[in-house]
Here is the input.
Amino acid sequence: MKKVIVIGAGFSGIAAATHISLLDSEVIVFDNHSHPGGRARKFEKEGFTFDMGPSWYWMPDVFENHFKHFGRAVSDFYTLKRLDPSYQIYFSSTEKHSIPAHLNQIFKLFEILEPYSSNALKQFLAEGQEKYKVAMSDFVFKPSLSIKEYFDLRLLKAAFKLHMFTAFSKYTSRFFKDSRVLKLLEFPILFLGGTGDQTPAMYSLMNYADMVLGTWYPMGGMFEIVSGMEKLAKEKHVLFKYNETVEKIVIKNGKATGIISNGVFYEADAIIASADYHYIEQNLIAPEFRKYSTKYWEKRKMSPSCLIFYIGVNKKIDGLEHHNLMFDTDFNKHAQQIYNTPSWPEDPAVYICAPSITDPTVAPKGYENLFVLIPLAAGLSDNETEREKLYLNVMKRLEILTNQSILPNVIYKKSYAMNDFAKDYNAFKGNAYGLSNTLLQTAFLKPKMTNKKVSNLVYTGQLTVPGPGIPSSIISGNIAAQLIKNILF
Ligand SMILES: Cc1cc2nc3c(=O)[nH]c(=O)nc-3n(C[C@H](O)[C@H](O)[C@H](O)COP(=O)(O)OP(=O)(O)OC[C@H]3O[C@@H](n4cnc5c(N)ncnc54)[C@H](O)[C@@H]3O)c2cc1C
Here is the structure.
């Protein structure tokens, strides 16, 4: 039996390990935390259960396919609920709109925001559907080790269908004019790490995912996905070792022979590195075996990091939905402060998740569980004073938008930002979602999954192919396992 070691028990690491378990091999996953999930860990405090990272369950087909591959179904592990409305957006203190789950109602909403725009939306979503189909069938499972993988007439034609070379904002402005509609359509890509003028229009597939495939919620919280995936992996005899900090990948004659974790050497025939790519390269591998230089990393364009507040409130908050976007301030200014002149924003765009609206198990009865997220530039100097300023800014705005007092009812509050991402996940510049999805950082232009200097080492996770997000990380783990299969068998 071959022995494979996986570093990191996030979505990519667990997915990779489960796929490897189908080969004739023993798989051990090492993670520095006491439980799995990586950026999607959870914690419990004062009767509240907080998901620490992801909160949007999009692209349910990817989750279903993961479990199906092993003869199981999502419903064997957790119960999904489709949210209706999918989310709501505050455009100002007097204007908010809910985005319904049903397409016909979304068309009606578009007619209100921009007369005669529902036909444009039909066309926009039809193109989004085509992009989703092409991307999910032809592109997303490619290891993208070389541009040659794309030298195929059918794929080149498909690349044009994807609008790879058109900017997202240019593309959407062909369909719509109203600034609220454009904001609504741009929000998914903002959280993917780019502005509309830098992100390929291919990502309008996210709008299709949003409006047609829907926004779902695993009852019990997002951590249910992690638990389900870990349980499946254990059924397949994957071994998990927690509280293990990998200090070194030992390499001899161009081959990784094992790792050193908590001072102990573990032998391996191959290694999958699913912790942050930059950290693995710059800290766990001797300089002569690194694929990329520090200069290379400095030139990468990072997705935003973020400031998160996990908040417990001892009353219900009227007017909130499960997902809430506060676009009541000048987002262009905030975008500048994220991407162009990194600085702490005064009046940021904010995302608030209130899972206790859907799920009574995540807060004591009659209380509200809030997850407040403010995108910030990765690498920004992080300190308590700035965090607290933004806390007050956001909570006061929330009080105005929902027309009630909330601050005196906060009974639990914890903040989390760049310094925490760097400390907990060894995240380069304290990044939250890896690299920006710009054209120059897409597919074969992303950090590669293999390293010619170390023949049996494969990288996976949100900093490599296909990119950030839970679905992408699960797919990345699957690709990594296929690469290991080619190397070992
Ligand atoms: C705040 C936030 C909100 C998000 N929201 C969404 C969302 O709503 N929907 C969505 O789809 N995606 C979302 N994402 C993105 C998604 O969570 C990530 O893309 C995904 O979880 C990344 O998984 P991963 O396996 O690549 O990495 P990680 O989850 O980072 O896992 C890597 C693991 O390796 C461990 N590790 C690091 N160094 C070592 C070491 N030396 N030894 C041992 N272990 C080590 C880390 O601690 C971590 O546990 C969000 C991310 C964040 C941060």
User: Anything to note?
Assistant: Residues 102-211 form one domain. Residues 7-13, 30-33, 38-40, 53-56, 244-246, 274-275, 279, 306, 308, 424-426, 432-433, 461-462, 468-470, 473 surround flavin-adenine dinucleotide (CB under 6 Å).
